[in-house]
Amino acid sequence: MASPLRVLIHGGGIGGLSLATALAGRGHTVEVAELRGELDALGVGIIQPSNALHVMRELGVLEQCLAAGFGWEVLTICDPGGSTLAEIPQPRMGGAPANNGIPRPALAGVLGRAATEAGARIRFGTTVTELADDGEGVEVTLSDGSAGRWDLVVGFDGIGSPLRGRLCGERFRPEYTGFANWRVTVPRQPEVRGVVMSTGNQAAKALLTPITEELMYLGAVFAEAEDFRPDPARAHEQLAERLSGFGGPVAEALAQVTDPATVVYSRISQVTVDRPWHVGRVVLAGDAAHASTPHLAQGAAMAVEDALVLAQSLDGADGVPAALAAWEARRRPRALWVQSMSRAVLKQETGTATTPEEDELLKVGIPGAAHVLVQPY
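Given the sequence above, the corresponding structure tokens read:
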């Protein structure tokens, strides 16, 4: 696209900051409206698979991510007692490592600095209050009272996306899967040099994921009632009760969890926007359009792919509407395949009945999915 654009990004998470970096680095005027007061990144750690790291290289921040995290190449499968059953090398995309574990706050810091250094402006404590698209541009009023006209508005505002609500009403509310994720950061055991997955006949799986030389996180998924919340005074004990059948490194990690406040609990929901992700010059991306379960570790990877491909689509298209159509044609099949595959894996691992369509997906298997996802996007 010949002329620089004015782009407003609603949401300063992983996808929004990646898009801000990509667009500002291309000479566009970019502002990010972020509701939080700072880039404090809730949660523990995150896995950046090789396709996400490929995007980080394109954004110029790969080395910063690797320096802040812990790169790894092999997935280790253990029985509940901790005995190794298999070691599975992980595929790479291009020259990026197979995976990188990184604390979420560290990744937010890397991407926030990259966005501002590229020229983007981040407006904290701010959200959209009014929006009007006249076909040639979008008039936006923000919660701080300021107003402006933008060529493009992008909703990278998460699974509960307020912008999605403005475009679609209540039609695409998050769907609770019936399962929840428990995670807690602990000191890294020296032998945990990649993800260690412990699983057995019980409907439970525990993972140890290194995120720095010093730290790793313990994660586990269980069926939970939709209204369940851990007891703030004994969340660590409730997690230990659920993992009582595990020994080895999982038990060693649990023994280090003594503060209930360190346990992070999140329900696993998904969103499938089955109508076009863009309406005029307003577009939904990342979890706002296609939130998935974490079972392929691809949620954030899909968001940063969305961001880079959108920037590339704006490079080559004749106008914003054509760019959005080209972007969605590339992104929808891949993102929805990840969502469907990830949900099928969740159901398989927890003994939940699968559909015939999910059975076909499961024939690919997680190793096969990993190889699919290191292909060009």
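The chain has twelve helices and 19 strands. Try to locate this feature in the token string yourself.
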